[in-house]
Amino acid sequence: MNEETSVVRLAKPKKKGILSLIFSRFFLIVLVILVEVAMMLLPVVLLEDYLHHFIIIMLLFTLVMMIYLFNSKMDATAKLTWMLVISVLQVAGALLLLFTQTNTGHKMIRDRTAEMIEETKTAIPQDTETTERLKEEDSYTDNLLTYLNRSGCYPAFGKTETTYFPSGEEKFQAMLTELAKAEKYIFMEYFIIEEGYMWGKILEILMEKARAGVDVRVMYDGMCEISTLPSNYEKLLEAEGIKARSFAPIRPFISSHYNYRDHRKICVIDGEVAFNGGVNLADEYINRIERFGHWKDTAIMVKGDAARSFTLMFLQMWNLSEVKPRFDEVFAPVEQDDSEEIHPSGYVIPFADCPLDEDKVGEAVYMDILNRAGQYVHIMTPYLILDGELETALRYAAQRGIDVKLILPGIPDKKLAYSLAKSHYRRLLEAGVRIYEYTPGFVHAKVWVSDDEKGVVGTINLDYRSLYHHFECGTYMYRTDCIPDLERDFQETLKECRQVDEESIRGMGTFYKVVGPIAKLIAPLL
Q1: CA 380, 381, 382, 386: dihedral to nearest 10 degrees?
Q2: pTM of the model
Q3: Domains of the chain in sequence order
Q4: What's residue 1's pLDDT?
C-alpha cells in the first residue's frame, strides 16, 4: 500500500456542489435584484394611475435611508457602497442591508460570543513586570497592549519561544511532532479541513491520542459542510473518540456564508505549545496538490506562557453552545521542565478579532505598525481590498519615507478579488508603496514585519471579510528571536516576484481594467 492510499479517511471525497453558491451572498444579491425588478414593474402594471405617488414615496424612502446611512457607525467606504445599492435597489436594497446587519440565523452566536468575551476578560492576568518592561522599551507596544485589552483578554508574555515556518510543509512536520507528544489535550480550530494526505496524517495521531485518554477536540467552520466535508462528519469523528463541532453551520436562506465565519487557525497542545498562521488542513497548503501554482504560506509556533491565550481563544468558541461553559484548561498551571527552561527574548501578544463589536482589532494592529514604523514595513497578503483608512495609512507611511513593500499572488485564486487588488495599485504606487507579485503561484501568507523589531503572523487578510466580517486571530511579536526570520523569508520570497510598475498597470488585461473599478463600488459586500 503506497503513502497516498494509506492515509486515514472517514468519508468519501466530496465534490463541491451548487449548495455553496445557493447559500452565498451572491445568490442573495441576485434574489434581491429580482425582487426589486418585480417591485418596479408592479406599480406600472397594477397601479398606473398612482405611479407618480409611488415615485414620490420611493424618493422619500431613499432620502431617509441616505440620512440613516450617513449617520451610521459603519466605515465611510461601506456607507458609499450601501448608498449606491439603496439608490438603485431602494426597498430591496434596504432589505439586504437589514439582513446583513441583523445577521438572521446568527443571533445566538452574536449574543453568546459577546457574553463569553466579557466573562473571560480577566481569565489570564497580565504580569505587571512585563508591562513595566514594555513601557521602559519606549516602543509604544504598551499602548497597543492597552488597546487590545479593551476588547478581550490579550496579555503580553515573555518566557515564550517563537518559531517561524516559511512554508506549510515545515509547519505540518512540526505539528506532527508536537501532536505526538500530547499528554493532556489537543484543541484544533480551523477554517478549512479537507480529507487527504495532510488531514489523514494528523487524524491518525488524533485517533491514537484519543484512545490513550487525551482530550481531543476539533472545530471547523460550517462552510466545510457544503464544500469539503459531509454534514455528518462530527459524528464520524466522535465515533473515533474525538469531540467535534461545526461552527455556525449554513442554514438555507437564513445565513449568508460570508457573515461571521470562523477564519481562525489554532492548534493548542497541553497549554504549552500553540500554532497559528495561514495554513489550513488541506493538501494544497503543503503543495501535495497544485491549484494555483506553488502555494506560499506561513505559520508560527509558540512554546511557553503565550500558548495559554490560544487555549482561551479556542475555549471561547467551543463553549458557545455549552450550557455551562468551562475554562479549566486556561486556569490550570502549566508545568515546565526546569531542564528545558525557556529563556527567549522579546514579547508575544496573541490576539483575536471578533466581528460582533465595534473594535476592528486586526486593522488597528496593522495601522499601529504602519504609523509607528521608523524604517520599513514589509507585508505578505493574498488579498488587497482596502477601506479608505487602511489605504490612507499605507500611502502615508510611504509618503513619510518608510519603505513599504507588499507581496501579493502572481496567480490568483479568485479573479474578482485579484481585479479589486489591482484597482488599488496606481494610488499606492503614486505614494511610493512598492508592490510585487509572486510569480510561482499563490501567496496565502498573512505576515507583517517592521524595523527588525515587530511582526505579526496570523489569519487576517487585507480585505473586508477578514477585517470586518470574520472571526480572526494573530500573533503579535516585539523583539522576539524569530523576527529576523520573518524579514529573511520576505526577502527570499521577493526574489521570486515581479515588481508592479506603471507600465505593467497599463498592460493589464481588459478584464482587470474594467471589472476592478466596477467591483470596487460594492467591495464591502464581496
Answers
A1: -150
A2: 0.88
A3: 19-102 (no CATH), 107-141+154-349 (3.30.870.10), 361-525 (3.30.870.10)
A4: 39
